[in-house]
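Reviewer 2 asked us to include a model.

Predict the structure of this chain.
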Amino acid sequence: MLKQKNYMKKPIKYCENPDCGDTIEYKSSKKKYCNDYCRNHHGYKRRTEENLEFLIFKNIIVR
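Predicted model (structure tokens):
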């Protein structure tokens, strides 16, 4: 009788950048983005949304 080996399946993770949504090759549980571009682009979009009122105020003063 052969013994079956129980291997753990690696979980499927998806990139947290909503514009991307690609799957991530599982290396670490802390990895959230598929590459540096997605990480930086998502941070840029998040910061511009958070600081939108300051950007609008700056554009009003400049004009």
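The chain has two helices and two strands. The mean pLDDT is 84. We have added this to the supplementary material.
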